[in-house]
Structure formats: structure tokens, C-alpha cells
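Re: the request from the purification team.
They wanted to know what the chain is likely to look like in 3D before they choose a buffer screen. I agreed to run a prediction and write the result into the notebook, where they can find it.
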Amino acid sequence: MKVLGIYGSPRKGGNSDLLLDRVLEGVKSAGAEISTVYARNLKMAGCQECGGCDKTGVCAIDDDMTGVYPLLQEADIIFLSTPIFFYAVPAQVKALIDRSQAMWSKRKLAKPMKEWSNYTSGKGYLIACGATKGKNLFEGLELMAKYFFDALDMSYEGSLTFRQIEGRAAILAHPTAMDEAFEFGRRAVTGNK
């Protein structure tokens, strides 16, 4: 089984990085193969909405995202980990998500519309933390994650989220977060065993 971890934070070693590190430890304990992408390190443009991928399923822009597409396609499970920036994802990970339009176009070309509700490429999960305790803190993120994974022909399987986490490494002071993250990764691979 191939698992991809997408680090969405612009801050190296931040809370969402620490959570994904721990999730991937759980994944590793279950014997899966792991690949990672750090959105903060990618040199890429945002989607130009040029329509270049509409007929081919291939993005017309040649930059670092070109190396990410195969990882997205090969993964059986993807974990997207991100902090909350103004109730959304940081610009770096949003660019990665927007550039996945090419994957959506590829899906439309390869799969009849009547089969779109049958996800055959794998499963997607969201990991997120934010500083506030707002009731709707993760609602927009959950919807965005659902449709990001939909573009990849993956079912959205749920999230691991934490409120009121602010400051570098603050997640480590949370009494259960690291254990929850490990189990979240392990269960995704083992099917909740």
C-alpha cells in the first residue's frame, strides 16, 4: 500500500507538520510505503485556468507540480495536513489543490459520468489544527478536502482536527493529540483494526 503525506504548512516543524509526522509513524507501523510532499518547498504557479488539461488531463504548466502528479496518482491513501489561515488553507497548499484541476480533467476523460460516484483510486484524509475555538473552524476545510480528493477519484474518509492550537509545537502539550494521530494513520492503513 502506498501512502502520500502532504505537508501543507509554510512553517517547518509547525503543529500540522508534527501531527502528520506522527500519523505517518502510525502508517509505517502498519507496513505501508510512504512518500511525502512539502507544499512550502514547491516552486509552482497557481492554476491559470487556461483549459490546457481539459482535452489531455495533463497540466500545461511545467514546474515542480509536474513531479507531484505521479505521487497523487500512485497513492492508495493521501493525508493532507494543514494549519488554518483565516478559516482556509495556506496559499502554498491551495496552489497544489488548485493545480489538481488537471487530475479532475483526467478523471472526466477516463471515467464515464455515471461512474463518478464510485471512487476507485483510494482514500483521502484531512489533518488540521487552528488557533481559535470557532464552531465553524473546520467546515470550509472539510468541504475543500472532500472535493480535492474527489478530483483525485478518492473517497474522503474523514479528518483529525484540533482547535485552540497556537504557537510552534503547541500540539505537543495536547494530552491526546500525538496518540490520536498515530492511531489515525495506523487505522487508515489497517482498516480500523
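For the purification team: The beta strands are 2-7, 33-38, 77-83, 122-129, 154-162.
Please add any questions underneath this entry.
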